[in-house]
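In response to a reviewer's request, we include the raw inputs and outputs for one of the modeled complexes. The two entities were modeled together in a single run.
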Amino acid sequence: MSSLLVLAIVVAIGLVAFVIGRQRAAAQDNGTVKPHSRAHYHGWWACLLAVLPAVLLLTAWNIGSSVYLDRHIHAALPERTANSAVASEALDVSLVKSLAKGLRQLDANTLAALPATFADLQPLLAAKGVALATDTQDYMIPIAVEANAVQSRLGMIGAALTLLLSVAGAFYALGQIRPRARARNNVERLMLWGLLGASTIAILTTVGIVLSMLFQTIQFFESVSPMSFFFGTVWDPRFAAAGSGGSQGQFGLIPLLAGTLYIALVALLVAVPVGLMSAVYMAEYATPRIRSVVKPALELLAGIPTIVYGIFAVVTLGPFLRDLSAALTGGSPFIQGQSIFTAGLVMGMMLIPVVSSLSDDIITAVPRAMRDGSLGLGATRSETIKRVILPAALPGIVGAILLTASRAIGETMIVVLAAGVAANLTANPFEAMTTITVKIVNQLTGDLEFNSPQTLVAFALGITLFALTLVMNIVALYIVRKYREQYE
Amino acid sequence: MTDIPMDTMVRVAAHPRRDIGLKARYAAERRFRIYGMLAISVGLAFLAIMLIAIVSKGYTAFWQTTISVPITFDEKVIDPSNKRAIDPTVLIKANYPKLAEKALVAKLGINPDDKPTILKLKGLLSEGVRVQLRDIVAADPSVIGTTRNVNILAAANLDSAFKGQIDLGVEEARRKVSDQQIAWMNKLKADGAMAERFNTGLFSYGASSRPETSGMGVAIIGSFYMMVIVLVLALPIGVAASIYLEEFAKKNRFTDLIEVNINNLAAVPSIVFGLLGLAVFINFLGMPRSAAFVGGLVLTLMTLPTIIIATRAALAAVPPSIRSAALGLGASKMQMVFQHILPLAAPGILTGTIIGLARALGETAPLLLIGMVAFVADYPKSPFDPATALPVQIYMWANEAERAFVERMSGAIIILLVFLMAMNVTAIVLRRRFERRW
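The model returned the following structure tokens for the whole complex.
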């Protein structure tokens, strides 16, 4: 019986328990005793007791039985020798598993007269649309058959236990129904646990991010020294060819980091003045009518996916700038089609709304009294802004710029399309440079072998990026928060 | 802000002894104002230029050149030895392009024995004609032996030429359509046989190596699956988490940690979520690559902080008097939250969710890492089948060299932007309509 079917039955039992529980509680309410909880809480409690323990058991059973199955296959496999046909033990197990999965597609008659060699078996499986690796060995067939038998036995036991537990839970809860029983408190306590559980997902995500990248990074540092990664100036990873031991690539972070920071700098040089000035104008000068038009338009700019910016950069702006520079010098263009300048400019445009909406909040948070005081002393509006409001808002604005910078560093699609893939170290903004995010994408798209340093380096890059943005975000959030409290 | 009354300024300026540089100061004021207006115009101008650039490149993708010819489903071509009753594969393997070719030969009045000329005719037709005609026969085998008017697809190069995108002034050897083909094209055009029709294929085809038969069908379905998964997972989890943090959590280290975490996650680069998905969902848990399910999970994790932050703001905006009233009438805290606060906060939550979904719909980078850059020609039947997503499809077309793909790509961007715009406008309308200022 499949787990899904069991799950459906458990839910059905829960629904039945809910209906019965509610009716029972309603029937007991004869007006003599004031019931503690309303009838549907009794129903819910019965439903929860019928479903939750059973689902937990089912999950645990499934995990446990898959571990047991792995061990079982391991034990059944012949002793490994130097000239085993399959490269590794793990591969052996996974081949048996995929064979077992394929065998489950066959009907009973074919299974009864199963051919003994893989060569005979393959066409039967192929007829069912199952493709298997060619290095599946003959000795695996009986093991796979045996594994299927064990699995179906385990599945039956698990299903029976789950259903039993579900029915037992339902009966227990239904038996407990009394007018004074505190069903509501029980249900609400469980709900609270559910809410708490949901809020820990954020922490689990962070832990998942850190752990997943950490493990791969440690694995990467086993083959490449951290020194040559963090301080290497050459990025030349070579290709991850299977079994090529000797051709060790060079994984220097410096060119990528330099490219990342350079492009982010160009982007900030565009975004900060423009964004800040728009925010100032919107907050201090604009009439409500202009505000009601411009604000949604800027929000629209923020809502456009970054891939669209990237494509605009590479299809329209890049060639335009290249042709423009060629026309200016009258021959060879000094701006390349993919360049730091193009990528930075477009990224800056993307960040304008980010800067302006963050600074808008901060500027409007400056207390009115400060503004009125300055104006009352005879300062013009621009003087008030320059000498009173902006200095007062400065910490918040710095925080906003840091947040923006972290967006710029982590931005991917614009640079993937517009910055180029060559890991150069150059100071010329009109040449191509590459970034950390570009290389993560490059190393991880296409066919990949998970254990080669060429793939693992992406995780080392990822954790570097994560650490970099984490520090910026935390500092920025701390500043913004502190600043907000100051005026509240 | 109160304006300084005009007459006061005049009086101050008129005072002879107190020159406080008003003229320069007002000039500075004006300059400052202009800088502000300039900044806003730069932002808006960029938005306008980008939209114009994309729309002007992409709107033609919604029309596709087709040739309307009477096609005779000749039994001699499809099934020369009359075996289709015993061997149905005959109908699949038949030489369908030949039918279209014959029809064109008749239409253009070419001598049927002039083999070299007929060979050139192939350049007019898309390879997709084979599938197109096959589907007609497969759907209704009784058409064999009859004649029927069919709109067959023109080849991508001819499509570009017909739309006027190929410069015909260039010498023949250096452009992709020959003079002969152009002559035929003009003849068919004069006949009214060749025309641009609305390009339904753009919405229905899967991946293809030929521009005229490639479309976003698979990507739309993949994106749809992912949005459903994000909505089903992120909305309940996000609302539950926000309720806990806003209404129940005591102020202690643990809740502080959660708060910092959520705020930080909202600012983590999206590509990092892709790395998480690759390492945890695909490598560790063994989920399938390229599947919409994994994409949905990754986007869920990415969208959660957005939804949580919006929901918390919406919950916090409900005034305490409502809470007190509910509690005062004997509701438990849980009842107060679910029966009173949550319904009142619903519009705000909905707005935040839609904006979060819109962001997830346009997100590309994490999907590249979990293998959604795949050549998928068939519709995914379930979220566990290989699929692509709208922005990923755009990225894949951006890497193609042929100009017809650039057209399709821009068309796809327009469609994506229309979806996003619709979502954002819905969010804004919802906010305007239901937002209550307490």
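As requested, we also summarize the result in words. Chain B has three domains: 6-59, 61-205, 217-434. The radius of gyration of chain B is 31 Å.
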